[in-house]
Design goal:
Glyco_hydro_b; 52 strands; 802 residues; 4 domains; nine-stranded parallel sheet; single chain; TIM Barrel; Immunoglobulin-like; binds alpha-D-glucopyranose; alpha+beta; 18% helix; glycosidase; nine-stranded antiparallel sheet
């Protein structure tokens, strides 16, 4: 499958000289004398699209990845016909296209720095077997250049020196070196000389990336068919590259309901009903917060989607209602394989309407999955997606299921050598008929999209919640995701940490792993350490195969239960902080997790770090990833940081030892941060929140923090019914000022902020709220200085003696 990009490869062909040039608004066409055309689109001043054909005309331009909401438009576009090249100039980039070879060089328009340069550039090999081309691109890898992104690759965060393939694959018990696995996100960020840029190769065929592995100074990417079609995205800040990529491929269409950011408990499988109830009531009895309980495939009748096993679940509607009364949202699994059974309504409808995938010569695509032999809906057909979405009416509207979990949508097929559809299977591809070679990588995405459509409709006016295993770029618009069938080992804890960070820098933030490991059984210690990491992953779910024992928080010993409870409680306290980060992600594409390189690219020490990351904007986390640890060494990025547990301030920019026995983990808060916190609840909505705590971390200097609030579900926030509070902190040696700026029409249920000031270097002599002196007798001190203020304060001024 993998083809080298070597220039020596016998079949390689290359563009010849440019003979003609044309401009059509934002599209520039460069014609060569061997039928190669380069279409360069100026998407934005910092985003250029390069598209090549070798046959003198382009195919229909269609992409599942690019969203119709992507920002377009530029401030400047000048084209200069020079002696050896064409020069394209925007306000951010200068791009040269060589007349002799069509090779591209891209410079920073402001300082003239060469950011990215073609090596051979575009070349191709004819595919005699399938028709079309194997399309290839090679670029120079610069001194000290690092590479990041590419979705769920389970190895080192920095991709340099590695080669990867993208072909969505069911990968039970994958390891660090397994490639490819579940997702295809052909997007990476390159970083050198403090300039970051991104490349998104929007091609759904099997694609490969070589990050200076084959040749030390060359990066190349290629695909087994389709067009050479990529976007170049300039930063120079890595965060801006990721935000632009996310803008292009789409932010989630709405915020998740807040409960979806709570804790989820899952297992293959909880049944019958009494077992489900036993699990949920134990959570309540032991006072371990939990919002969601999952039903895996055994809830169905013979694994037929959209049916119930009436022996295990005689009255699902009643059960789901009772669970809801106890604060549990029920999430159910739905797979793509539809059992071949002429008495099964979903199968009959699919067959009658010709909704199932077919082989090249017209036979149905038949494959074995859990229910035995199945047919598979062609989710790339919009009519099939509409039908599929309508199937959720009963499950959601009538029975009251709150979330749907899409699995096996690579699509996974058992007992065949390649574990998926054969290449010849036909797909509609939204009116661009093609084979599975082209549709494979987006099949799962389109299934999740159709599921999302159904949930969005039938959950209304509440928000939908979907989870998917398979994904292509852009899938984040519709759904959350998990990292598939991992294993209960320490190495997998390391992998989970990498994957969540990598997905975040690949535009897909709402991600988590099967906490504790899906296959095999974790020790209590491993389980505890994994929950600790999970607190800081956007999707927070324990799941296991159930073959090797239980993985509920009480399945180990009492110490484990107590520590796990404490950490899940921390997650519930941090919900307003995480929700605010989510709002930033949904509105601006800001990554939810920032690897250190994404946080501080200027500091080269961060370029090869893997373990530490920033959760949201101001909390630094580093999981413990080995047994018997009493702490660990970690790199603390530049700036001053408060140890979350002790309030000790450390100066970053260096590696240091941090104590973290089993009941703790390294967590730091950026100085100057204002961290909003909820009281602990057993589930979202258990309590009416009348007070929010603001943990204020004194800084001699300035820092901005935010708090976003709304109804925690529904769509009112889109109509302006949200509340965004910006806290601007200014600290001096004997005073601390917090100014609040308010925006939005939502009236929050909370009226009071309990302000807890950490690390104040002076003794308080006076406090003013909006210029009025408040009695300092109101100050409580329990390590921190605490005062309650009205939520609408404009300025809180704390004065003191040195
Ligand atoms: C797959 C999923 C796993 C699920 C199982 C049964 O292995 O990845 O999460 O529990 O199928 O449905």
């Amino acid at each position: 499958m993998i083809v080298n990009t070597e220039l020596e490869s016998k079949g390689n062909q290359f563009p010849s000289n440019i003979v003609n040039f044309q401009k059509d608004v934002d599209k520039l066409y460069f014609y060569t004398d061997n039928d190669v055309i380069l279409e360069l689109t100026v998407v934005r001043d910092s985003v250029l699209r390069f598209r090549y054909t070798t046959v003198g005309n382009f195919d229909n331009d269609f992409s599942y990845a690019i969203t119709k909401y992507a920002s377009i438009g530029y401030n400047k576009l000048e084209i200069d016909d020079k002696k050896d090249c064409y020069e394209v100039l925007t306000s951010k980039l200068r791009c040269e296209i060589s007349k002799e070879s069509l090779r591209v060089s891209i410079y920073d328009a402001i300082d003239g720095f060469l950011i990215n340069q073609d090596e051979i550039g575009f070349h191709w090999e004819e595919s005699y077997q399938y028709g079309g081309n194997i399309v290839k691109m090679s670029k120079i890898s610069n001194d000290g250049e690092s590479y990041y992104g590419l979705g769920d690759k389970p190895n080192h965060l920095n991709l340099k020196g590695k080669r990867y393939n993208n072909w969505v694959t069911d990968s039970y018990a994958y390891g660090k070196d397994t490639d490819p696995i579940y997702k295809t996100i052909p997007f990476y960020t390159g970083l050198h000389h403090n300039k970051a840029y991104g490349i998104f190769f929007d091609n759904t065929f099997s694609s490969s990336f070589d990050f200076a592995q084959e040749r030390r100074n060359v990066v190349s990417f290629w695909a087994q068919g389709g067009e050479m079609n990529y976007y170049f995205i300039y930063g120079p800040a890595m965060n801006d590259v990721v935000e632009s990529y996310t803008d292009l491929t789409g932010k989630p269409h709405q915020l998740p309901p807040l409960w979806a950011l709570g804790f989820h408990q899952c297992k293959w499988s909880y049944y019958p009903e009494s077992k489900v109830k036993e699990v949920t009531s134990t959570f309540r009895k032991l006072k371990i917060p939990c919002d969601a309980i999952y039903l895996d495939i055994d809830y169905m009748d013979g694994f037929r989607c959209f049916t119930w096993n009436k022996e295990y679940f005689p009255d699902p509607k009643r059960m789901v209602k009772e669970l809801a009364e106890d604060g549990f949202k029920t999430v159910a699994i739905i797979d793509p394989g539809i059992k071949i059974d002429k008495d099964y309504a979903v199968f009959k409808e699919g067959l009658e309407n010709d909704y199932f995938c077919k082989r090249a010569d017209g036979a149905y695509m038949k494959g074995k999955v859990w229910p035995g032999e199945c047919y598979f809906p062609d989710f790339t057909n919009p009519e099939v997606r509409d039908w599929w979405s309508s199937l959720f009416k009963e499950l959601i509207e009538d029975i009251g299921i709150k979330g749907v979990w899409n699995d096996m949508n690579e699509p996974a097929v058992m007992e065949v050598p390649n574990k998926t559809f054969p290449d010849d299977v036909r797909h509609d591809y939204d009116g661009n008929p093609c084979s599975h070679r082209k549709a494979h990588n987006i099949y799962g995405m389109q299934m999740a999209r159709a599921t999302y459509q159904g949930l969005k409709k039938y959950s209304h006016p509440k928000r939908p919640f979907v989870i998917t295993r398979a994904a292509y770029s852009g899938t984040q618009r519709y759904t959350s995701s998990w990292t598939g069938d991992n294993v209960a080992t320490w190495e997998h804890l390391w992998i989970a940490n990498i994957q969540a960070q990598r997905m975040s820098m690949s535009g897909f933030g709402f991600v988590g792993s099967d906490i504790g490991g899906f296959a095999e059984q974790p020790s209590g210690e491993l389980f505890t350490r994994w929950v600790q990491l999970g607190v800081f992953h956007p999707f927070f779910r324990v799941h296991s195969s159930g073959d090797h024992g239980d993985q509920e928080p009480w399945s180990f010993d009492e110490d484990v239960t107590d520590i796990v409870r404490k950490f899940i409680e921390l997650r519930y306290e941090l919900l307003p902080y995480l929700y605010t980060a989510f709002w930033n992600y949904v509105d601006y594409g800001t990554p939810l997790l920032k690897s250190l390189v994404l946080y501080d690219q200027e500091d080269v020490q961060t370029h090869y770090r893997t373990d530490e990351f920033i959760f949201g904007k101001q909390i630094l986390v580093c999981p413990i990833q080995e047994a018997n640890a009493k702490g660990r060494r970690m790199y603390v990025p530049r700036g001053n940081w408060y140890n979350y547990w002790t309030d000790e301030v450390v100066k970053g920019g260096k590696e240091m030892w941090v104590d973290a026995d089993i009941d703790s983990m390294p967590v730091f808060v950026k100085e100057g941060a204002v961290i909003p916190k909820y009281p602990v609840q057993q589930y979202v909505g258990e309590k009416e929140i009348t007070e929010i705590t603001l943990d204020v971390y004194y800084k001699n200097g300035k820092e901005k923090s935010e708090l976003f609030s709304d109804a925690n579900d529904g769509y009112d926030y889109i109509k302006g019914r949200y509340s965004l509070r910006t806290f601007s902190l200014t600290g001096r040696s004997n005073e601390l000022i917090i100014n609040q700026h308010k925006e939005g029409k939502y009236i929050t249920p909370y009226n009071i902020f309990e302000v807890r000031i950490h690390g104040l270097p002076f003794e308080i002599t006076e406090i003013q709220v909006d210029n009025e002196i408040v009695s300092i007798d109101l100050l409580k001190s329990n390590g921190t200085q605490t005062i309650k203020v009205d939520k609408n304060f404009s300025e809180l001024h704390v004065l003191g003696n040195l």
